[in-house]
Amino acid sequence: MNIYTKTGDKGKTGLIGGRVDKDDNRVEAYGTIDELNSFVGQAICQLEGEMFQDVKEELINIQHELFDCGSDLAFAKQGHPYKVNESMIEQLESRIDVYMNEAPPIERFILPGGTPAAATFHICRTIARRAERLVVTVQKEHPVNESVMRYLNRLSDYFFAAARMANARAGIKDVEYVRSAKVFRSNNKDETKDA
């Protein structure tokens, strides 16, 4: 099987239902999601030990969902069933809550880092944000499954929570950005107040 088709040699690529320039904003959006998926794969490889088995399985599911996001963005025409739905977003929200409860409370922004997996989760977080911005651009010109944008928004929050969880499970403390105001509120209003 040859993986090279030569059909893209003149700067065009295929969407489902048509061909576009390789710098089309839909291609840029789903290409960025593909980049994100690769870093999720790297994070999986960096999670060592049984204490992360649950996270690895979850991340593999997220990789499938990222392909679903790309698929929903790769349609050139309307009238097809979308793959990304609200239940995927709700699942992310559920896991965000679990992971934030595993990590100690924070008041300020934190510096990306800690374990290799946590650092990679922070890379995933920023790529998810970029993908979300690109989908916003796409929706100005083309019909878009709005659940994809919400999914990417929640996914960036998930990666932030996952980074904190990975450090907490490894016993490594997050480093707060020292010049940050207090931006995170505790559930107990007397415990943390915004600066």
From TrEMBL:
Pfam families: Cob_adeno_trans. It is an enzyme of class 2 (transferase). Keywords: ATP-binding, Cobalamin biosynthesis, Nucleotide-binding, Transferase. GO terms for molecular function: corrinoid adenosyltransferase activity. Its EC number is 2.5.1.17. It comes from the Bacteria. Gene3D superfamilies: Cobalamin adenosyltransferase-like (1.20.1200.10). The keyword Nucleus does not apply. It catalyses: 2 cob(II)alamin + reduced [electron-transfer flavoprotein] + 2 ATP = 2 adenosylcob(III)alamin + 2 triphosphate + oxidized [electron-transfer flavoprotein] + 3 H(+); 2 cob(II)yrinate a,c diamide + reduced [electron-transfer flavoprotein] + 2 ATP = 2 adenosylcob(III)yrinate a,c-diamide + 2 triphosphate + oxidized [electron-transfer flavoprotein] + 3 H(+). InterPro entries: CblAdoTrfase-like, CblAdoTrfase-like_sf, PduO-typ. This is Corrinoid adenosyltransferase.
